[in-house]
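assembly run, all chains below
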Amino acid sequence: MDLASLVVVRVPDTMAAARSADRLTRSGAFGLLIVDLQDAAALPLHVLARLAGLAQHHHTAIVFVTQKAPGAPSLGSLIALHGSTTRARLAADAFVCTLRVGKDKRRGPWTVEEVCRGPAGLR
Amino acid sequence: MDRLACVSLHAFPLQVLLLDHPAWRGTPAAVLEEERPQSPILWVDLHARRAGVRPGMRFAAALALAPALNAGCVSPTSLAQARDRVTGRLRRFAPDVEPADDPGIFWIGLTGLEHLYASPARWAEAVRADLRTLGFEATVVIGFTRFGTYAVAHTTRGTRSFREPREERAAALEVPLAHLALAPEIRDILVKLNVTTVRDLVRLPEAGLLERFGVEAYRLHQAAGESHAKLRPAAEEVPVRAHRTLDEPETDLSRCLFVFKQMLDPMLASLAARGTALAALEIRLELDRYGSRVEQVRPAAPTLDPVQVLELVRLRLEDRASVHADDAVPGIVEIDLTAVAVPATHEQLRFFGSHPHRDLTAGNRALARLRAEFGEQAVVRARLRDGHLPEARVTWEPVRALTPPFPSPGRPGMLVRRIWAHPEPAAPATRQHDGWLILGTGYGAVEDLLGPYIVSGGWWIREVDRAYHFAQTRRGDLMWVYHDRLRRRWFLHGRVE
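ok done. output:
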């Protein structure tokens, strides 16, 4: 990843994050926006509808990252793809990372697994 | 527990090859990796096997044993087309069909079918009979888990149905590893260790299996251990079609081409949205008083360019008009277009008109608005710098203008240690760290503490002496913590994600 081109926008709350995402998507300059909502995982439907329309129009992927209990629903029905991640340690330096997508409006459910190594010091 | 079926088309590439060359049936036949004398043989039929030909042999060596051996390659495209054909056929029997990565294996959800068929065995026989009309010989096993049915299908011919999950599990555990998709070199080592069946394999610790035999053996072990996994049915691909009924029979070629263009543009947009390109266009023309006529135009290479396709359509329609040169040209009253799609290349999709140009100036204007609203420090980028303490190695600097990215090839499959800007005090450790609830009760006690990694210095300003550890909680969270030896306290400084 080229860190110099990775712009981070730091805002105080969820609605400010949604407003920022709106402005950035509307510019049409970005192909991918990641909105880190942490555990404040709720956005009004009209906000989601506007972001979905903008994302479609400008060919931008907007990814909302949330922390939820397993099996918790997605932010709303306008979310096109909803998945959850898990990680399990297999060996001293081997982890299996799983992305389970329970809802994908294009393909239906799917799962992908990757065996990863740990950071330096965890071996 | 929901029931499912595994449909196994044994030696699928060989079956596809024999479908392409029906005259080879009843003769020694083999599938090659490449069409050259030194190519290894991948699959052999019964006649070739009787002549002593085995998978893994060179084609030239096999010819010495069986001079009448017929052999050929099966391209990935042919395999994918055959797989799609079978998937479509199986959807006639149940809506949820999941093609496996292993070619020739399909799982089918049977929920709700009990009212349609007298028994699972009848259903299985109907599936086999239908696939036989396509030219494929299949084995159908009805059970409860993907792996259980898959494993048993490799040692069964015909159909088999399990009444209880226990019964299926017992049968799957007895399947020899030699029948499953496992690299021969791994299988040979396992045989030397007297690990010959699935039962022997699942007894091994999966972590050790991953370390010694790699991901393939690990995945097989993991699949064998599954109790019940939901099906992941493939979404049905609806062909891209367009239909137009004309008000009056149309005889003018130019006007017809305009209609074609109006129909073709949205079709190409749909294909591009699916990541596919047009390999051929099937045209059905309903002619005034002359019945219907079916045509197909095929560009030199799959394309998303409407000009190329329209040119071919024009030539085909001109040719049709010339046939009727002496008579009145029959007018077209209806047009049906169906696209034959294949996966598009990245270049084809990139140059397709629907992908917008990214305007960095517009992006800069949007960032300027965010800075005005949230402050100068709201829009930043991370910059690595030299520093002794972990938190000093990254700094945030304001972004004045966007720059195009130049990513370097990343290291695959590496977890990230997220470092927090400000370490947070952690719960005090217990003696010997037994039952230490570093994150609270919801995360469980610390089970493993890896370290220490000492960071010390700074005596010339403010002395630092930290002993860093990775702490794994019972829930599986991996925290990066340190013990401040001067303050005699534990701090949370990050987590592995």
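Chain A touches chain B through 46 residues (CB under 8 Å).

The radius of gyration of chain A is 16 Å.

not gonna interpret more than that til we talk
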